[in-house]
Every structure is written in structure tokens, then in C-alpha cells.
Amino acid sequence: MEFNKKEIYRIIIYSLNQARKWSIWKWLLLSSIGALSGTLQFGEKFFNLEPKRSILYAIIVIIFLYSIRFFLIFFKESLKYYHEVYKNSTYGDAIIILKDCFAEIHYYRKTDGFQEDEFVKSMMIFCNNLKTIFDKITNSNCSVSIKVPVGHEKVIENTVLRNLTRDNSHKTRDTEEYSKIKHTINGNTAFNNTFNKVITNNSQKFYINNSVNKTEEYLNTSKECYKNGILPYNSELVHSISPQKTKDALNFDCHGFLCVDSDVEDAFDKKYCTSIVEGVCDGIYDLILELNKNKNGIND
Amino acid sequence: MALTIKANNEKPLFELKESKNDKLIYKRVVKKNGNSKKEIQRRVNNLPTATVHVMSEDDFNRLKNIELELRQKMRFTIDDKKSLKDRILTFLEI
Q1: Rounded-to-integer distance, Cα A293 and Cα B53, Å
Q2: Nearest beta carbon to residue A185 from set B5, B25, B28
Q3: In what order do the strands lie in the sheet with A257-262?
Q4: Rounded Cα distance, A162 and A180, in Å
Q5: A148/B13 CB distance under 8 A
Q6: Beta strand A251-254 pairing with A257-262
Q7: For residue A86, what is the nearest residue in chain B, using CA coordinates?
């Protein structure tokens, strides 16, 4: 981030102007005591102060009060400015990274023929870029994964959600023990809750829990993998891989779930974090649809 | 094929309506509230459904193998290499 001299100069001028814009009675009350005591000579009578010295004290008090006001206003304005810069830089970076993600989708769509490796590559890029975005936004260590329903056609009851891909930093979570567990929708509060929102056509098809390890009646099949059932994350945000808009009002599609988690509590907000995953899920939905279309030769 | 989904092991929220190849169509569970079976059926039929698209085991394994190959080829340096400044800021939570 560059040091914006022009902006700092603007804040200084603004603070200098604002510092003198104080209630007139406060200036008079706090600074004119010295001046009055000098001119009316009661300072001399009671405090043995010469009139000149009384006026000097009055000037010192005025300068002191003005300086305090100036520094406090400057500090407040600088904080506001840097907070704005930080916010812009975080979300600005997110926009740039997301642009790259969606470029992958568009490239995949434009590429003729059935290319599974391009599909997987896009998914991996999505996970890694989303991790970078959420690390910055939440100022914590986040993990992003895409879970899809997998099962044998004849054995529907055994349909489970499996990890299609995950960000590179958290590949170690995909242990043998983890892959052996049947991660079902009903066995996980997050999937269950999110899928219920899909079927009820809720506009917010996500589940946020900012304190998973402290939530009672919170089901998570991954707990078995960890000592004492304590998950390696404290906040989670799960969104269904569904289209944002659909013509069919009687049936809603779900191709899986996008899962984001963070090692800190209270990591995700309902406004910005969810909007980012909403857009991404819409994009991933298109990718999976394209994959199926190419595979089956039909518009699913 | 009675796969019923429950919220926190309490009341079922939705259940499997039908399955078509790689699609599982779920319907919502409607409370009886003294209504007749016919009435409940009518209400259920009017409610929207949700389709879960299931990936076959073979397709999934093939994609996972591709992922494994790509992971060896691709480099994800952004998240792995944090600068000293970033590490200090993360530590200070600023």
C-alpha cells in the first residue's frame, strides 16, 4: 500500500479547520479566564500574576486546547481513512481474484469437447483463490472445500457427500479415516440446514455457525476424525451449489455444497462473506452443469 | 427406500420422493395437524421439491485421480508463502 501524501495533507487541513470549530462558549470559558484575570486584575490580586503573564497563560491554554483537538481529530480521520483503505484493498483484491476464477469458468465453457481436467483445474483454482480471499477478509486461516453427492445408482441409501477438492493448504485433512466416514446430509447440521433452505426456496441458501465447537446439538460426521471430537475450525459457512435464479419454481437443483471454515470464532459475516460464496456457487453450478452436459450429451 | 432427513434428530424436514438415474428428488414433510391423508397428499403435491444430482463412484474416482495429477503439476504459492509482514500482522491480529 502506498503512502498517500495528498490524502494525509487533506486530513491535516481538515483537522486544522475542524480543531477550531469548537463551541464558542467552551473557548471562552476555558481560555478567557487568563485574559479576563489579566484585564480585570483579579489574577494579580488573588494569584500574584502580572496581567501580561495572565494573557500569556490564556494563549498557552488556547494553543494547548487547539492542539489536543487537532491531534484527536487527525487521529480519528486517519483511522477512518486507513480503515477505508484496508476495506477497499481487502474487497478490491477479492474482486480481482474472483475475476480470475470466473475467467476459468468462461474458458471452460468456451472450450469445445469434454475436458474433465479443465473442470477439475477450475474447481481447484476456485478453492485456492477462495481460501486467499477469506484469509484476508477474516484475517484468519481458512479452508475451502467442495463436497458432492456420490453414490451407486442402485444403492441410494448409501449416497454420501464426498470431498471433490480442497484448498492446497488443508489437503492433510483428507485422511483415510476421513474418507471412510459416510458424510451424509442428515448426519451434518450444516448440510441438513442448507438443503432445507434449498427445498423451501429460501433466498439465503447457506448455513453459518461462528462457534461450531461450542454449539450444542451440532452434528458433524467429521468429528470422529479428531481427538475428543473437537474440530480443527471454529467457524463455518456452507452454501449449496445451486443456481441463483431458476425458471422452475417447483423443483430446485442441488449439486453439492461449498464449505468454508476458519480457525477463529466469529469469522464470517452474513452480508459480504455469504454474497461472495453465493456468486461462486452459482459459477460452480454452471461448471458442474457443463460437465454433465458434456458427459451425457444432454442439457440436464 | 425410506431415507428421511431430520433436523438435529428431531422432526423430519424432507424425505425422498423418487429417484431417477443420478437424481434424487426430495419432498418436504408436511405436518398432519389433523388433516386427512388426501389433504396432506394434495398439499405435498403442491409443494416444491429439490433434486440432488449424484455423481457416480466411477466418475468421482476419475476426477479425484485427475485432481491428484494436477496437484503435483500446479503450484499454489499464494497461500503457502506469507511474507514476514503478513505473519506479524496475522500474529498481532491487525
Answers
A1: 13
A2: B5
A3: A160-166, A142-150, A257-262, A235-240, A206-209
A4: 10
A5: no
A6: unpaired
A7: B94
- Among A242, A269, A266, which Cα is nearest to A253's? A242
Cell of A55: 494573557
- Judge: A128–B79 Cβ closer than 8 Å, yes or no: yes
d(CA B49, CA A29): 73
- A201 by DSSP, 3-state: which? coil
Q: Among A19-28, A60-69, A136-145, which stretch is predicted with the lowest mean pLDDT?
A: A19-28
Amino acid at A48: N
How many residue pairs from chains A and B have C-beta atoms closer than 8 A?
Answer: 137
pTM above 0.80, yes or no: no
pLDDT digits (tens, 9 = 90+) for B65-81: 999 888 888 766 554 55
DSSP label of B54:
P
Grid cell for residue A51: 496581567
Q: What is chain B's alpha carbon radius of gyration, rounded to the nearest angstrom?
A: 24
| Chain A environment of B90 (Cβ under 8 Å) | 139
Q: ipTM above 0.85? A: no
Distance, CA of A210 to CA of A226 (rounded, Å): 19
CB proximity list for A182: less than 8 A, separation 6 or greater = A158, A160, A221
pLDDT at A288 over 80: yes
* A257–B contact, CB cutoff 8 A: no
Nearest by Cα to A237 from A164, A168, A165, A134? A134
Q: Which residues contact A181 (CB under 8 A, 6 or more apart)?
A: A221, A222, A224, A225
Contact A165, A146 (CB under 8 A): yes
Q: Are A93 and A275 in contact (CB under 8 A)?
A: no
Residues of chain A with CATH 3.30.450.40: 113-296
Residue B79: which of A132, A195, A200 has the nearest Cβ? A132
Interface subset of A 127-166, CB within 8 angstroms of B: 128, 131-132, 135, 139, 148-153, 156-157, 159, 162, 164-165
- B79: number of Cβ within 10 Å: 17
A127 in Cβ contact with A145 (< 8 Å) = yes
pLDDT band at A286 (very low <50, low <70, confident <90, very high): confident
For residues A145-169, give the mean pLDDT: 80
**Three-state SS for A133?**
helix
CATH of domain A113-296: 3.30.450.40
Question: How many residues does the structure list for chain A?
Answer: 300
